[in-house]
Specification:
It is a single chain. Helix 1 crosses helix 2 and helix 10 (203-233) packs across helix 11 (260-267). By secondary structure, this protein is α+β, with helices and mostly antiparallel strands. It has 16 helices and 12 strands. The termini are far apart.
């Protein structure tokens, strides 16, 4: 053994002693890149040899609610799939290059998104200043739908929420500028709360919300198609010219991988809306369906009959015909009578009977002081029906971290 190796083993023994001390103190141990890889391997050998690194069976995650209150969703049986119409520019190298330039990490579009994040995180007294920053970012040259975002910022400063027509116009303008971005879906969904949370929706409101949500699901699928194509061919990269001299003729800051336009067209055939259809959903069964009960999904109207199983997502709408009501069984919450009008993920909680509301309230209260390592599976399984109670509780207890995570899972 060389002298250097002997010294490394001595150092490894010393580091292992420190690791042992931190293990006994239940503290995190991280060996960063500043250590020699050989020394790290020696420490690992000593840790294993001393029996410190043992594999323990994972304990089942303890729910904050009693075990009999944890909801197990049954699998979805109703599947709706509409063909995705891909805009021509999204399957060309030039169109993808413009998209990559807009989505550049340090671009004006990224700055606009950051200002919207500050609005959502701002305290009530700081909200007006945050909206002024949004207006400033939207006024920059070349920002897609910049003028429309400016107008919405002016309305927000005046205390007026955006209308569904204005939100839809923003989505139209962004797509017309050759941009698809999953962030836009979350922004528009949150902006629809003022109307979609009315219980129940009137016919005109329901039609407007259904049209918007159909557009958002399509936009999410387009963004998914671009992402899948990037996995197959490599992503669009941004390489700004950093030299003092001017760039050579034909230089482009954006590089679109060869074959990506075709990969986008191929991926569009199987693209999905991602977590918008798989998470924050309600499992429900139609117990008594009136004539004309419809599910709005992906821009389609699907008739529902008695016994239909539905995984009700955030971009779905149930349409109960005028002068009628529908009886559904929501997993974990029991029977719920839905009145005439439109039912959305935003307003379904307001339509729950007293017994179901009491159950949701109890789960929310149990989750307020939920310790680390526990889950809130009961709330996760009925999140659309519980999101209103979660938001109300967060207003009084902003320190409830698990509730904040659940709220974020619903709105984004």
């Amino acid at each position: 053994m060389s002298l250097r190796a002997a010294l490394l083993w001595v150092a490894a023994v010393g580091v292992t002693a420190v690791v042992l001390y931190r293990f006994r103190s239940q503290r995190v141990v991280v060996l960063s890149g500043r250590w020699s890889p050989r020394l790290v391997r020696m420490v690992a050998v000593l840790v294993v040899a001393m029996g410190l690194a043992r594999v323990e069976a994972a304990e089942p995650e303890a729910p904050c609610a009693p075990a009999d209150q944890v909801v197990q969703q049954r699998p979805r049986v109703l599947v709706v799939s509409a063909p995705l119409e891909v805009p021509p520019w999204l399957t060309t190298t030039e169109g993808l290059a413009r998209l990559g330039e807009t989505l550049a990490p340090r671009g004006r579009w990224a700055t606009l998104k950051q200002t919207f994040a500050r609005v959502e995180l701002a305290a009530p007294g700081e909200r007006e200043e945050a909206w002024r920053r949004v207006k400033l970012a939207a006024s920059a040259h070349g920002v897609p739908a910049g003028e429309r975002f400016e107008a919405l910022a002016d309305k927000a400063i005046a205390g007026t929420p955006a209308t569904l027509a204005e939100v839809t116009a923003v989505v139209d303008a962004v797509e017309a500028a050759g941009v698809v971005d999953a962030w836009l879906v979350g922004w528009a969904f949150r902006a629809s709360e003022a109307v979609a949370s009315r219980a129940p929706l009137r016919q005109a409101e329901r039609s407007a919300v259904a049209a918007l949500y159909g557009r958002l699901e399509r936009h999410a699928r387009l963004a998914d198609a671009v992402q899948r194509a990037g996995i197959e061919t490599g992503p669009i990269t941004y390489r700004p010219w950093l030299k003092k001299s001017g760039p050579p003729p034909g230089w482009s800051d954006v590089v679109v991988p060869a074959g990506m336009p075709g990969a986008v067209a191929k991926a569009a055939k199987t693209a999905t809306a991602g977590t918008w259809t798989t998470e924050a959903t309600l499992g429900l069964t139609v117990a008594k369906a009136p004539k004309g009960l419809r599910l709005h999904r992906q821009g389609l109207e699907v008739p529902l009959a008695d016994g239909a199983r539905v995984r009700f997502g955030r971009l779905d709408i149930l349409q109960v015909p005028e002068g009628a009501s529908a009886l559904v069984e929501i997993d974990g919450l029991g029977s719920v009578t839905l009145p005439a009008g439109g039912v959305t993920a935003w307003n379904v909680g307001a339509l729950l009977p007293a017994e179901a509301r009491a159950k949701v309230t109890a789960w929310v209260e149990a989750a307020v002081d939920c310790p680390p390592g526990h889950s809130v599976r009961a709330l996760e399984a009925v999140l659309p029906a519980a999101q209103g109670a979660i938001a109300d509780k967060l207003a009084a207890r902003p320190d409830a971290s698990l509730l904040r995570v659940l709220r974020a899972a619903f709105i984004d």
